[in-house]
Amino acid sequence: VIHKNNAARKKSRLSGSLRDLKSGKLVVAVKVDTKARAAAKAAAKAAEREKAKQAAAEKAAAKAAKAEPEKKSRKEAKEEKVEAKAEKRAVKADAKAKKE
């Protein structure tokens, strides 16, 4: 059996603590268990690894693009050569026709 005054004091103390919690005067630290902490660390490391992998891929692509200008296939290079020769012949033919 609790005496009337003791009950009132306990009730008052409890209501005061709740009031302080709601207002923010009293802060209760939440303990994070080790499994949750480990999972958060693992997720952060995985995200960091993915970001590093993506940055490395972008860097490699930029390096490859810078180091290697557009390569033409052999067929395209040969066609350009033939066109250039045809142009030269046409110019020479025009010059020869003008002379005559």
What is the topological layout?
Layout: H1 4-23, H2 34-67, H3 74-99
How much helicity do the residues have? over 70%
Q: Specify the overall morphology.
A: rod-shaped
Number of helices: 3
Structural class: mainly alpha
How far the N terminus sits from the C terminus, by CA atoms, comes to 135 Å
Sequence of secondary-structure elements: HHH
Radius of gyration: 41 Å
Largest sheet: none
**Which band does the percent of strand residues land in?**
under 5%
Residue windows where pLDDT falls under 50 for at least 5 positions: none
Briefly summarize what is shown:
The chain is mostly helical.
Q: What key attributes describe this structure?
A:
100 residues; mainly alpha; 80% helix; single chain
Characterization of this structure:
The chain is mainly alpha-helical and 100 residues long. It is built from three helices and no strands. The radius of gyration is 41 Å and the shape is rod-shaped.
